[in-house]
Design goal:
InterPro entries: AraC-bd, Homeodomain-like_sf, HTH-like, HTH_AraC. By secondary structure, the chain is α+β, with helices and mostly antiparallel strands. It has helices spanning about 110-115, 130-150, 155-180, 185-190, 190-205, 210-220, 220-235, 235-255, 260-265, 270-285, 285-295; strands at about 15, 30-35, 50, 55-60, 65-70, 70-75, 80-85, 90, 100-105, 125-130. The protein is built from eleven helices and ten strands. The strands form three sheets. A five-stranded antiparallel sheet has the order 2-9-4-7-10, with helices on one face. Strands 6-5-8 form a three-stranded antiparallel sheet, with no helix packed on it. Strands 1-3 form a two-stranded parallel sheet. Strand 5 and strand 6 form a beta hairpin.
Length: about 300
């Protein structure tokens, strides 16, 4: 079941990348943030929504408060917010946002780059606080990417796309290094077994809660999968799956009007009693109480 199966009041609206703003087929845009010119005019910035692309905001001022999946983050000058596709988020007053914003669909990046830069590491925090040296590197890399982005005259389109790809990769590698925070975590980003499992869970969590089924589908033994997921996250594959299911259930309970039973169905629990039992076990409260507390 997807957002499209629900009436407007029973779903979280997802906005696609604005293809009319893409450049030569490259799904990215970089430039200054300006509250008077939202980066996407048809998105209600101060309402809860999802996007199907990445947003990286590098702030020149602040503080700015921004909600991402039930956590309010306060970002100030020299800090970054990295919002990944599918995350539920909400802007505060748009006029307070000042700095540089990168929006991108990384479909034109090689798979190896996507993995090495951790583009879909939802377990990493959105708010990043670089030190002075890291910030200088990120600003220089961002400025270079923006120069290449706006320079559409000096190179033929194919070569311009290649230069953009390399410039974006350089910026994302710096960003990933900051997000990872340690050499141990950087090594984890390269664990192909875990990344394949993570991608499969993100795609199928609403229908598949079985570790063995994921292992079979990916061609791994259960033991191999357990070892890879534990090394990458410190938790079991079952714990990783359950955490993703609970997050989606919380999103639907908090931000839609779906009845509790239909929320359960949407995350793979046809029986409402089983869903309530599962949710209380992992969230420490019932679905009804969770919804009531937030409203």
């Amino acid at each position: 079941m997807t957002d499209r199966d629900f009436p407007d009041g029973d779903r979280i609206k997802t906005f696609p990348f604005p293809v009319d703003r893409s450049l030569s087929g490259v799904g990215m845009r970089i430039g200054p943030m300006d509250g008077r010119r939202p980066w996407r005019a048809d998105i209600p910035l101060e309402g809860v929504h999802r996007i199907d692309f990445h947003v990286v905001m590098l702030f020149d001022g602040g503080p700015v408060r921004h909600m991402v999946d039930f956590t309010e983050y306060e970002a100030g000058a020299g800090e970054l917010l990295w919002i990944r596709p599918g995350q539920v988020h909400r802007f505060s007053h748009a006029t307070e946002y000042r700095g540089t914003v990168l929006t991108m669909q990384p479909g034109f990046l090689p798979r190896a780059t996507v993995e090495s830069t951790g583009l879909y590491r939802y377990d990493l925090p959105p708010l990043l606080r670089p030190d002075a040296a890291q910030l200088a590197g990120l600003r220089a890399s961002s400025a270079q990417l923006e120069r290449e982005y706006v320079d559409t005259d000096t190179l033929p389109p194919g070569l311009h796309t290649a230069v953009l790809r390399h410039s974006l990769t350089a910026f994302l590698l710096r960003l990933a290094h900051l997000a990872a925070g340690s050499t141990e975590e950087e090594h984890r980003l390269d664990d192909t077994t875990f990344t394949r499992f993570r991608d499969a869970v993100e795609r199928d969590f609403a229908a598949n809660h079985s570790v063995s089924a994921y292992a079979d589908a990916l061609g791994y033994s259960r033991r191999t999968l357990v070892r890879a997921v534990r090394a990458a996250t410190g938790e079991t594959p079952k714990g990783f799956i359950d955490k993703r299911v609970v997050l989606e259930a919380k999103r639907l309970l908090a931000h839609t009007d779906l009845p509790i039973g239909r929320v359960g169905v949407a995350v793979g629990f046809p029986d409402a009693a089983n869903f309530s039992k599962f949710f209380q076990l992992h969230a420490g409260t019932t679905p009804v109480a969770f919804r009531a507390e937030l409203r």
